[in-house]
Amino acid sequence: MLFFDVHTHSMCADQHVFSILNKYPNATNFSKPFSIGIHPWYIKEETVEQDLLIVSLQLQHKNCLALGECGLDKISETNFELQKAIFKKQVLLSEKYKKPLIIHCVKAHQVIIEIKKELKPTQTWVLHGFNKNIEIAKSLLKNGVVLSIGAAIIKNNKLQKVISEISLSSFVLETDAAEIEIQEVYQKIATIRNIEIEELVSIMNKNFKEIFIK
Q1: Per the structure, how many domains does the chain have?
Q2: Whole-model pTM?
Q3: How far is 4 from 2, CA to CA, in rounded Å?
């Protein structure tokens, strides 16, 4: 079985795990499958145009599977209007290079949806680290945003309720920066849905390929 981890900050040595490593513009090693983007925390007005050029260049790398993480964060010190401007520029890069978008979102889900309606992207948007309630989940899914579920599923009852109700085709799985193996995330979701882990692996394999392997 092959387990897909769509967003992680550390490489897994297990040959049964396929990981997409999160990279920032200052990264130097692109030898493994990766995504690259400008995180809203790290937007600096004096360097952001150069960072966008780097992202544009690396999106053309053979190992690049997605743009991100990028997005909006209302509790970040970064000016929110600047965040929106840089997020929109990265959406356009996602479209230009035909790469799915991995999104960081804190307290800005409705704004993400509004921007998606405005820009009408053709590439898939994946909201990583989703841990909100069923109402927010349904709103995002209604607007074509795929959810990415990580370590929060282990103990978060609210998120477990979401996973018990939404379609298995509407999400992918990740570890992010958590000290957890992706197999644990798979096992918890298989338990919640009362299915064999082999069935979940098959579905997540299909979901992954539809988004990331063109």
Answers
A1: 1
A2: 0.97
A3: 7
